[in-house]
User: What shape does this take?
Amino acid sequence: MAPSDVWLDKWTICYIQGSLPADTPAHESTRAARRANVFSWHTGKLYREVPDRVPKQVPAPAERGGLIKFMHGNHGHFKFGVKRTTALLHPFAGGQVWVEMLSRLRNEFRMARQSHKLS
Assistant: This one.
């Protein structure tokens, strides 16, 4: 079964980048090609293509925490809540989107609240 996060799906990433190995199993090649239909790769960045909209960048997992912290530090320390922070992330740098984005934001909010209560 393929990972829900495209960045963790090595076959799909290889396919999107145009470097699918010749020894890739046929079922993985077919699956990767199907999944890759909604993604594109430009200047080293992965984008999710949304019909009739601007493509949304899909940041690598290692970059996601930094984006959340950037929004936290520069846009009111989460005073706007999860929904507002999500809305701010979408247009940021051409739009950001990733699997489980809301749950990640909720966890960050929860941890921030706990650390503020302790200090």
Summary: The mean pLDDT is 78. The chain has five helices and three strands. The helical segments are 10-17, 26-36, 61-74, 81-89, 101-118. Residues 5 and 100 are 9 Å apart (CA to CA).
